[in-house]
Amino acid sequence: MDSEHSTTHLSGGRSAAGAGATVGNDRTNGQPRNPVEAACAWAGFVTLGFFGLALISASFIPPTSPALPAEKLKEFILEHQVGIKFAGVLMLAALTGFLTLYAGISMQIRRMGGPNAQRLSLLQLSLGAMSLVPIYPTALNWALAAYRPERSAESIQLISDMAWFNLVMPVTPALVQMFAIGFATLSDTRADPIYPRWYGYAAFWVGGLLMAGLTVPFFFTGPLAWNGVVAFWMPAFVLGTFVIVTAVLMLRAAKKP
User: pTM of this prediction?
Assistant: First the structure.
């Protein structure tokens, strides 16, 4: 009888100690409960750095003008040949990071619960991935344009045009992706939601503002050309800010059960 009582007491003590250790681990140093989600969030910061470094290394800040004559464009590309090739490599790395970030967002949307969480999670990830597909040719075309100096100026201009069109214009998948994020965020009505409600409304605005890229086939100069304030700089600023804000919110959410 005493032996049985001692065993029960010892078992209870171990359980209490285990529970205490669990609580302690959850609170120690603010470590995330969901480290994979945290890693996906950090990928967002790294990706943004790679993307910016790619544009800088190629001297594409500001972007080349659509109105630049073919011969002048060839001179520019050959002058920055190594940097443009390097930019193509960096862009491929950046795209991998973007997809990792989007996967992390989907993980956290699934944790929101509710009848549509899984559907919106899938929609966000699939449309986010689709929005990246045209940008792969951008990286390859930049490297291709700088690959053979003996090509005609017109051929290099065509390759460059395809690169910039693929980067700026195919924005419609991102619209649906942002709407999926927005609806998922606003559907999370728990006392401690994964993301704050204002983030859902911000996602709707981001999706709408990115649509400025659809104007690039109609203009060679001005704010609506691919190097313009409305078609390029505004979406670039909006998307860059959104990635930073998203990564910060994801790191916070990764600490939630």
Answer: 0.84
